[in-house]
Design goal:
It is a single chain. The protein has helices spanning 2-11, 32-39, 158-161, 206-210, 459-463; strands spanning 54-68, 72-79, 88-91, 95-102, 111-113, 137-143, 148-153, 168-173, 182-191, 218-221, 228-233, 236-243, 252-253, 258-264, 267-274, 285-291, 299-304, 311-321, 348-356, 362-366, 384-387, 392-398, 404-408, 413-418, 421-422, 431-434, 439-444, 450-456, 467-473. By secondary structure, the chain is mainly β. A six-stranded mixed beta sheet has the order 10-9-12-16-14-15, with no helix packed on it. The chain is 7% helix and 39% strand. A hairpin with a 3-residue loop joins strand 1 and strand 2 (72-79). It has three domains: 54-173, Cupredoxins -  blue copper proteins (Immunoglobulin-like, Sandwich); 182-321, Cupredoxins -  blue copper proteins (Immunoglobulin-like); 339-473, Immunoglobulin-like, CATH 2.60.40.420. It is built from five helices and 29 strands. Bound molecules: copper (II) ion.
């Protein structure tokens, strides 16, 4: 414990260059209780200033064949012929410029999951950009304000395109070059295969919609079933975990290791949070700093325990030993407790439920409305309006018995209550899991203008209508 406290002390000394969010004349005018919430420490998350550097990437989305799972040839759709797609590593403050060429038999887009970026670069077809037709190209370009673990994937027919293999990790490195622990990137996914061993081409089935989306019979780490990863006794390793599955929730058990979550959904936590009940819904990321015990030998299995049938996700093989060096200093972030917000009435309530309708007979809705958009053309009602800079309380009410990981584009939010009980998770999120009949309150300070998607990240629920729009604008 003492070691962490020392680290937290060191963390305060890590300099972050930030931009002022609003020029004084544009600062939001707020009633006193909201102004107090905005004034709470950490209520807005600082951004790295633009560095002036550009990081260029070429991506081609196309059908292909890869050696995956147990090494068999598998027909996929892939970025640059790889599943997972190429890991993009850029630096906070740099501009990322990605030229995407669509060689798929369908239109596509890329959504940059968890990033704070200009609305026009968010990749939501029919809302922030037209879908990119087969054979066409589009260039995404934006500054990376936050160091952390993010990912990218299509926002057109995600239930098919993400499942067929279109997804990749975006790691934004901190601005400084300080030495850090060895890193592992673990993209978690699952696969529903047909009898011929290929990806089952029945997407968004009635069964998927009546349940928690498409759950496959094979789970993988970076496309491999139960990989073995070499570690050394006494070694500290940062594992960047990401759930890219359509529907499956992962709960990796890291209790055999001294493991702490140091960032969640791309933002540093307020302090190291013991990774004892780690749960990753589709879209979630957790950076876990773990220490292999100094006396470890043989192998250590990392077991998934979300369902009643635990299975081994990956095996660590202890090969050699190192002197346990002190952990590198890292940045933690003040996260507002926002305890005074529990008494506030929610500004907006989103009820989640299903009804009969749609192509497969079940349609998922938010407040009684399905937003159908799977062909890349969105039909929707006027968006819910949020005021720029105003701490806003959103309530999700799950009127169904199914799971719904709710994802908000372009902003981070904090969970402040679950089923009426105040909660302080100690970290920000962009995706929060609701179990059946759950009610969850979150606070968000919208900091970027534009029309942002709010949807269930179970891609079958999403593609059958479980999405709505929030429009962030300045008070007039
Ligand atoms: Cu859902």
């Amino acid at each position: 414990m003492r070691r962490w406290m020392l680290l937290a002390g060191a963390a305060a000394a890590v300099a972050v260059s930030v931009t002022v969010l609003w020029p004084r004349e544009q600062a939001p005018v707020l009633e006193p209780e909201r102004a107090a919430l905005l004034a709470e420490a950490g209520a807005t998350i600082p951004r790295n200033r633009p560095s002036g550097k550009v990081h260029e990437v070429e991506l081609v989305a196309a059908p292909g064949t890869v050696q995956l799972l147990d090494g068999r040839p598998l027909d996929v759709w892939a970025y640059n012929g790889q599943v997972p797609g190429p890991t993009i590593r850029a630096r906070a403050g740099d501009k990322l410029r990605v030229r995407l060429r669509n060689e798929l038999p369908q239109p596509t887009t890329i959504h940059w999951h968890g990033l704070r970026l200009p609305n026009g670069m968010d990749g939501v077809p029919g809302v922030t950009q037209p879908p990119i037709a087969s054979g066409a190209s589009f260039t995404y370009e934006f500054v990376l304000p936050d160091a952390g673990t993010f990912w990218f994937h299509p926002h057109v027919r995600g239930s098919e395109q993400v499942e067929r293999g279109l997804h990749g990790v975006l790691i934004v490195e901190p601005r400084d070059d300080k030495p850090r622990e060895r890193e592992l990137v673990w993209l978690l996914d699952d696969w529903r295969l047909a009898e011929d061993g290929q990806i089952d081409p029945e997407f968004v089935t009635r069964h998927d919609l009546a349940h928690d989306g498409r759950w496959g019979q094979l789970s993988t780490v970076n496309g491999k079933v139960r990989p073995t990863v070499d570690v050394r006794a006494g070694e500290a390793v940062l594992v960047r975990l990401l759930n890219a599955a359509n529907g499956r929730i992962f709960a990796p058990d890291l209790s055999a290791l001294d493991a702490n979550v140091v960032a969640f959904d791309g933002v540093p936590t307020s302090r190291p949070l013991p990774a004892t009940k780690l749960e990753l819904a589709p879209g979630n990321r957790a950076d876990v700093l773990l220490r292999v015990p100094a006396d470890a030998t043989g192998t250590i299995d990392v077991v998934d325990r979300f369902t009643r049938r635990p299975f081994v996700l990956a095996t660590l093989r202890v090969d050699g030993k190192v002197e346990s060096a002190p952990l590198a200093a890292r940045e933690f972030r003040e996260v507002p407790a926002w305890t005074n917000a529990s008494a506030l009435e929610p500004d907006h309530v989103f009820e989640l439920n299903a009804t009969r309708g749609g192509r497969a007979g079940i349609e998922w809705q938010i407040n009684g409305k399905a937003m159908v958009h799977d062909d890349g053309h969105a039909k929707h009602d006027p968006p819910t309006k949020l005021q720029l800079g105003r701490p806003t309380k959103l309530r999700f009410v799950n009127a169904s018995a199914r799971l719904h990981p709710m994802h908000l584009h372009g902003q981070f939010f904090k969970v402040i209550a679950r089923n009426g009980q105040p909660v302080d998770e100690g970290h920000w999120r962009d995706t929060v899991l609701l179990r059946g009949r759950d009610s969850v309150d979150v606070m968000v300070v919208p900091e970027d203008e534009g029309t942002w998607a709010l949807h269930c990240h179970i891609l079958e629920h999403h593609d059958s209508g479980m999405m709505t729009l929030l429009k962030v604008e300045r008070a007039s």
